[in-house]
């Protein structure tokens, strides 16, 4: 049996930020350094990565089966060179089948998609974490209902992957309000981040999960997440390590916005 891998939640930043000029210069340096160091923090090199990205929503959890995924440049108004990025990490139909089996064994209806490519919630952070593109990556969608309890349950169902050499990564943001970035988001992002980090790093178990289900009652919750698509991947990675401790492995300010990343297990 492989060493049990942790789960991680990545605040993936805005668009293709590592591959363009950013103002002010250096704004994302801390997050970039964390992503490059993430493999060392994880420990053993994974056989594959299963990424739950905020940028893929379906009525039911849907798993990518494409063996050679292309890139989805699902961002707008960025420099031309960011639409020519390449990342040739392979998919893994075998892992996709294993994910489907685990979900169905837990009575969670699911689908597959043999055409979808990696969205920027996947390829942008993975290009920094695994730049050689030598680790297979499979995407799993979130459900369009954005139900925290349902996504915790998805995490519980796929938890056995951690003992099979698979890194389960959620890719979203701890703050995602496109109308209040910069100074307008400084205070609400700090308030919500403080609550969220306390909740995630609290004593492991059902109590932590129940607290996260009630995230919308937290200070500045709806100011931080008018729509919770970028928070929901966190529920999956917490569910997959429900009875294990967690820590904030990145906590920084990016263009006035407080962002965090977490590792569980």
Largest sheet: 6 strands, mixed
- Poorly predicted regions: none
Q: Percent helix among the residues? A: 25-40%
Total strands: the figure is 8
Number of helices: 8
Using only C-alpha atoms, the radius of gyration works out to: 17 Å
Strand content: 15-25%
**CATH homologous superfamily?**
LigB-like
On the 0 to 100 scale, the average pLDDT is 96
Order of helices and strands: EHEEHEHEHEHHHHEE
Number of domains: 1
CATH architecture: 3-Layer(aba) Sandwich
Based on CA inertia axes, which overall geometry fits? globular
Distance between the termini: 17 Å
Helix and strand content put the structural class at alpha/beta
Spatially, the strands of the biggest sheet line up as 5-2-6-1-8-7
Could you explain how this protein is built, in words?
The protein contains eight helices and eight strands. It is α/β, with parallel strands linked by helices and 265 residues long. It has one domain (7-264): LigB-like (Protocatechuate 4,5-dioxygenase, Chain B, 3-Layer(aba) Sandwich), CATH 3.40.830.10. Helix 2 (93-105) links the parallel strand 3 (62-64) and strand 4. Helix 1 (29-42) crosses helix 3 (120-129) and helix 4 packs parallel to helix 8 (232-239). The radius of gyration is 17 Å and the shape is globular.
């Amino acid at each position: 049996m492989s060493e049990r891998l942790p789960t991680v939640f990545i605040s993936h930043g805005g668009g293709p930020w590592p591959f363009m000029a950013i103002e002010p210069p250096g704004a994302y340096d801390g997050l970039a350094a964390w992503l490059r160091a993430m493999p060392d923090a994880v420990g053993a090199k994974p056989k594959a990565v299963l990424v739950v990205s905020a940028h893929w929503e379906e009525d039911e959890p849907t798993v990518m089966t494409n063996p050679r995924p292309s890139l989805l440049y699902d961002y707008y108004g960025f420099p031309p060179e960011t639409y020519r990025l390449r990342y040739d990490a392979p998919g893994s139909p075998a892992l996709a089948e294993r994910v489907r089996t685990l979900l169905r064994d837990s009575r969670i209806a699911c689908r597959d998609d043999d055409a979808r490519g990696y969205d920027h919630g996947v390829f942008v952070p993975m290009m920094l974490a695994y730049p050689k593109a030598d680790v297979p990556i499979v995407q799993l969608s979130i459900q369009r209902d954005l139900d925290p309890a349902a996504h915790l349950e998805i995490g519980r169902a796929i938890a056995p992957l951690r003992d099979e050499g698979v890194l389960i990564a959620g890719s979203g943001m701890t703050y995602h309000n496109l109308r209040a970035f910069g100074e307008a988001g400084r205070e609400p992002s700090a308030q919500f981040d403080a609550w969220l980090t306390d909740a995630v790093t609290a004593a492991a178990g059902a109590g932590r999960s129940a607290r996260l289900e009630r995230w919308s009652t937290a200070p500045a919750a709806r100011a931080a997440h008018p729509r919770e698509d970028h928070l929901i991947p966190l529920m999956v990675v917490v569910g997959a390590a429900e009875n294990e401790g967690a820590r904030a492995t990145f906590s920084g300010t990016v263009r006035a916005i407080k962002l965090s990343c977490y590792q569980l297990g």
